[in-house]
Structure formats: C-alpha cells, structure tokens
Amino acid sequence: MALKKSQLYSTLWNACDSLRGGMDASQYKDYVLVVLFLKYISDKAKSDPDTIIEVPEGCSFENVLALKNKDNIGEELNKILEKIADANDLQGVITNADFADENKLGKGKDLVKTVSDLIGVFDNENLDFSNNRAADDDLIGDAYEYLMRNFASQSGKSKGQFYTPAEVSRVMANLIGISHDERTNISIYDPTCGSGSLLLRARAEAKHGASIDGQEKDLATIGMAKMSMIIHGVDDAELRHGDTLNSPLHKVNDNELTQFDYIVANPPFSTKKWMKSAKEEDTFGRWGHGAGIAPVPPNGCGDYAFLLHIVASLKAEGHAACILPHGVLFRGGAEAEIREFLVKKHIISGIIGLPSNLFFGTGIPACIIILDKEHAYNSEGIFMIDAKEGFEKDGAKNRLREMDIRRIIDVWAEHQYVPHFARMVKFSEIEENDFNLNIPRYVAPEDKEIIQDITAHLKGGLPKHDVDEVLASFWEACPDLKDELFELQANGYYRLKVSKEDIAAAINKNSSYQVRTKQYVDGLTSFFDTVHPQMNGLIPGFNPKELIELWGQKLLEVTGQQQLVSPYNVYEILMNYWAETMQDDCYMISRDGWKLSYEFTKKKPTYEDLLCDLLPVSVVLEKFFEEDTKAIAVVRSQIEQIQAEADQLAEDNADAFGDFFEKPTEANIKKEMTAFKKGESEGTDEMYGLWASYIAKCNLKKEHAKKEKALIETLTAKVVKKYDALSEDEIRSLVVNDKWTKSLFNRAEAELKRVNQQMTSDILALSDRYATTLPEIDEQVKSLQEQVNKHLADMGINF
Fold first, then answer.
1. Could you report the per-residue pLDDT of 692-723, keeping only the tens digit for each?
2. How far apart are CA 421 and CA 273, in angstroms?
3. Cβ atoms < 10 Å from Cβ of 66
4. Quick one: pLDDT at residue 799?
5. How far apart are CA 531 and CA 518, in angstroms?
6. Residue 679 — φ and ψ, nearest 5°?
7. Rounded distance, CA 702 to CA 680, Å?
C-alpha cells in the first residue's frame, strides 16, 4: 500500500537521522540533501528529456545503488557527483559533502555501511520524482522543506539560521502584496538568502512569474539554496556567495546597487563588527554623513545596516519585508537616529510583532518591518500589529498556527483596527513619542489581570466593571443574555439571577444565543453545500493546495456572519484536519484517483487490523456494520463482567484463594481441586465450592470468547467483501460525506460547546470570586477560633 505523503516524509527523516552517528545535524544535512538531489535529478532525467539538469552517463541513481556495500562506495560516489557538477556548473553546490570522509562517516566497513544505508533510504518506490510538479505543490519540494526544518531544529542555536520557518515566510510574502501584482516577471531579492526558503515562498505568490536574486555569506548554505532552486524547478535564480554588507554582488556598477520590485529578508540578528571593507561614507549611498543620507549604523550591531541595504536595493515603487529583533524598534544612539530618518521618509509602512522563540537561530522575539516606497508620499502613518500571543508550542520552539497566519494577513489587508491587536499609528503620534516604535506604546496589550473589588468583597455583589466590560464579548454576541443572567441592584452592583448550576442551561435557552447558534450551523451548512460539489469532482492531477485555500476562504466568509464563535478558530479546525488527514487523502486522490488499497497489519488479522488510509475501517463499520459491531461490543462487555466477577470472588475469599498462589488461575485452581479430591489438600468443602464457582465463571468466559471470535471472523469477512465491492462513487461518497464532512462538523460543533463552556466558566468564576464576603469569612474564622479555644480549655490550656 502506498505511503501517505506525511508518512513518507517522517519515514525519510527518521531513517536519515538514525544514520548520522556522532555528526551534528548541520553537517549531516549536506549528505542527506545531496543524495535527495541526486535522486530527484535522476528521476526527472528518465521522464523529461528537457530537464534543466544533465545527468551524464553512468551517473544515475541506479548507478549509485549499484555501489551499495562496495569498499570504494565513498570514492565512487564522489566521482559521480564531480561529473554531474562539471556538466551543470554545480561545483561547490553538490561537491561539498565528501562521502569518503572517514572522520565524519566512520572508518572502513562503518563508512561503507553508513553511505550504503543512506542511499538505501531513498531507494523507495513511493519516492518517485519523475512526475514531480515544479509548482508550489510538489513531492520533492515539500520533502526538501520538511528535511530543512528538521535539520534547522537540530542544528543548534548558531547553526540553524539558514532556515526561516515556512509559516513566517508565508506571512512575509503575503504582506508585501506579491500576489496582487499583475506585472509579468517581477524581480524578488533576498540579501541574506540562506537556504532560499523566503525567495521560493515569495516567488510562489507571483501570478505571472518572477526572477529571483539572492546573496549569502555562508558557502555551504548557498549550495543548499541552489539545490533547492533546481528542486523547485527554478533554473534562472541568481544566487551569489559573499558578504552583502561589505561586498554586495547585485549591482549596476561600482557605485550603484541593482534595485528590485520586492525584497524579503531574515538577516542574522545583531551582527557584531559587521563593518569591514564597508566605509562610514558608503560607496553605494546606503549610509553616511551627507544631507539626505541615513546615519551610519553602529558597528557593534548590524540590524540597521541590513535594513538600509534593503532600502537602497528597493525600486522607487518597491515593497519589502524584513525580520529584525524587537530592539530595532526602541534602541537609542545611532539606531534611534536611523529610525527617525526612516520614519520621516515615510518608508516604513508596517510593523508586525511576532511571538518569541519562532526562529531556529535565536529565542528572542522578533518583528517584521514592512517597507513601502510606492506609497511613501501619501502615507499617513505606520500600521502596527501585535501578534505576539498567536502561536502554539511545537517541540522546543513556538510556531504560528494557520489561524494566526490568516488573521495577520486579513487584518493587514484591510488595515483594520482591532483592539489590543492592530491599529494605524499616525506619524505625528510617533514623533510625539520621540520616534520610538515599540509596539506596546501604540497597541495596548489586553489587560488580563483580575481586578479585585474591595467593596464587593466586603458587602457582596458583582462589580459592574466585571460584568459590563470583562464579559463584554459575550453580550456583544448575545445582547439580551446579560439581563437574563444578571440584575443590577440599587447599590450599583450586580447579582446573579440564576443558580450556579443553571448558568449553562440559561445560556442555551437564551434567544440571542440560539440565533447565533443557528447562524453558526447555517454557515457550516452553507460551507459544505459549496464545497461538496468540488470535493466530489476531484480528479487525478488537481492541486490540493489551491483547493484548501479556496475552502479556507469560504469557511471564513460563512462563519464570519455570527459573533459567537471566532471564524479563525473554525478556520483552524479545517486547517488542522487538513494537515492531519485531508492533505494526505487529497494527495492520494490527485495521484491515484478514488481507488482503495488496503492491507492487514497482522498475520492472522481481524477487521480491526485492516489498514486503509483513504477509507479507514472505522468509517465502513459505522456506515454498514453498526449492528455487527454492537453485537461484538455486547459480548466483550459480558466477558469483562464475568472476569470482574471472578476477580471479585477471589478477592472476597482470600483464605480460599490466597494461600496457594498470588494470582488465581484456572490451571492452579483445577490442580488444587484435584488434590482435594485425593485428600492431598488442606482445603475444605466450602473452599472447594468457591473454587468450583471460579472455574464455572472461567468456562462461561470461554463460551463468550468463542462467540466473540465467531462474530469477529464473520464481520471480518463481511468487511473485506465490502471493501472489494465498493464502487468509485461509493468510495467518493464515503470519503466526502462520512469521513471528511462528519469529522469537520463534529469538530465545529465541539468548538461551539467549548464557547458555551467558556461563557459558563467565566460567569461562574466571577460569581465564586465574590460569593463569600470578608465579614462572613471573619465570622467563620471567629467561630473556628472559639471552637479551638474551647477544646484547649478542656485540656486545661487557657489564653
């Protein structure tokens, strides 16, 4: 049975990672990625005579496989890579990894085994790149991305900077508006391109193609970037090796930098002593002491040096996004002067504050600086987004969720004011704050501190602030709910009108809550009515990523018409289910159509051991064999009950069972019974009767076990027969309706219940906070003290 896409990647990573021995992941990645690259170009050469990479005779992956377990495998593999490099100008790209290096790969037979096993990882029938699409939805590109992320996560703080998390790359590419540009062949540049992930993501957003250029200081990393470009079908990328700040290589002449339509960058944070051959009076006019030129960045911190390089490399109508540490927003000295210069030029159009610990090279919080030369003249301010709270834990790092990505993109696109999240800040306000751009100065963080009301603690009642403001989101969604739950008293404090136990029921019965609930369910129904024809119409060759973008947009639209459940939470449900299940399903359908392949995971299998990824056995059982599964469940319950009764019998009669054996078994008891009949046991007639009762339960359990086995065998045969008889239309219906739709609808309903529980919990917590007044507590303390004193007095101790 074919591996799922996600399963294939994890299998690939686990196999590769297990082979690296004592090597650091930052070193071992060079070997793995080169073999992956070799496999890709070999597969493509077999199916595409016009492929961009020439594979010389004797250099295919099949030729490499023939070297497995040979004593000279390392040397011969190096020779093959040299031939390919010479034929395609890839020296220094695929020849950096020395497969004969005994210091890294082991000596003698150890080296032979390590290299042979590594090659063997890619000898997988499911890992066939011959029909790979050179688009944003391809097997090899996604595999490369998956490996890169894993290598970055294991390469250590100082060696993981070559990779920008895909989630952040997607945000940046969307924020600068590449997808809305109707021009043909726009230019995209990354001055610190690393492994090229930012460039590729930005290029994927271009409607009509884009030329991409980049520069990278680290030689091994630029090699990874060039391989990645080829793997993604890009044969014209201008990627150059060198120090961008001191020796920029994309230039018109010795004094003028090449300028680009779009720039994306994730420079190394706060580079020390960056200024080498670069001068304070920069040759390219990036900084200096003249009028109209930006101040010189401090040599002890290169953040603004990179940002000013980007500004100088941007066309007059250009847009850029750059990741920098939060310190650039508020640090003083020369950086404050540069910040003032950029603000007065109106070049900065936006700042997005990101969560901490997103990046593999550092754990500190960062921000995305958006530059916009095109609209600088008419700009009135800087749009700021505080997105630091939107993330989830992912191992040792944090990661942006799909809902976080989408929310940032949507709010930015509309420049919406969202309390505690986003607002447009006028340049005049920034100037009043001495050009400090620290986001919390302008976007007030939500105050989550609980304010204790002393009067309420003393006299009782619920504070007006807590009911009216802290719970305001509930009343916005359900306007008449507050009056049903609370009553405002003459003293200005509320009281709860319903008992604590009835809060949830009161919410459910509320008319506005029911209206919102209906809107929510109607929205979900509308979503499925829209996407079902598309789901049912899937045919081999479709692009799954394009579809999920359309479906996600539709879900946001239809669920955005109610205020009860956050549309972004519902969107996250869809995207999570996509990542867990639907993505693999759609990949299989795109590749093979609506065809089933299944296998059993055991030699003597039952229906429970049947594995079918596209149509799990649980779906088939629920649809066709509900009565059969109920019958088996009943027998299993009876078996458990009989066993429980037998265990209880032994436990309640320890004298009869505990003297002979720690745990009673049928064999032990029968042996003891035989000995009793022969007069060889010290048991009694009463004990013998208990033993007989235990054996009777064992026999009854066996009878039920036989019945269970027969039912299972019958159901297994039925299930196999059903799988074999399913038509394509039946498979489609089961997957779309009984698998996808039911799972998504159940999760969406669970989110509605969670909202209800949250409302109930918050109201209950408020009530409990002021349920007992301080005078009442004092009285309780006084009463308890009197009781203690009385007991002490009885003991002859007086105070």
1. 999 999 999 999 999 999 999 999 999 999 99
2. 36
3. 12
4. 62
5. 20
6. 80, 15
7. 29
Tokens of 301: 């911190």
Q: Distance of alpha carbon 765 from its chain centroid, rounded?
A: 32
Nearest-angstrom CA–CA distance, 294 and 288: 6
C-alpha neighbours within 13 Å on the C-beta side of residue 787: 6
Question: Which of the two residues, 783 and 726, has the higher pLDDT score?
Answer: 726
Note whether 83 and 59 are within 8 A (CB).
yes
List the one residue out of 330, 321, 327 whose CA is nearest residue 301.
327
Strand pairing class (494-496; 486-488) = antiparallel
**Do 309 and 258 meet the contact criterion of CB atoms below 8 Å apart?**
no
Confidence of residue 160 (pLDDT cuts 50, 70, 90): low
Closest among 133, 116, 145 to 48, alpha carbons compared? 133
Q: Tokens 């008293």 map to which residue?
A: 489
pTM of the model: 0.87
Asked if residue 719 lies in contact with residue 612, where contact means CB atoms within 8 angstroms, the answer is: no
- The token pair at 341 is 């210069």
What are 366-395's pLDDT values in tens digits? 999 999 999 999 999 999 999 999 999 988
Mean pLDDT of the chain: 89
Name the residue type at position 15: A
Q: If we measure between CA atoms, which residue out of 571, 556, 175, 197 comes closest to residue 402? A: 571
Q: Is 212 helix (H, G, I), strand (E, B) or coil?
A: strand
β-pairing verdict for 599-600 and 610-611: antiparallel
Predicted confidence (pLDDT) at residue 664 exceeds the cutoff of 80: no
Q: Which residues pair with 190 in a beta bridge?
A: 214
Integer Cα distance of 278 and 271 in angstroms: 14
Phi-psi region of 162 (alpha: psi -120 to 50; beta: other; left: phi over 0): alpha
Q: Which neighbouring-strand residues pair with 253? A: 256
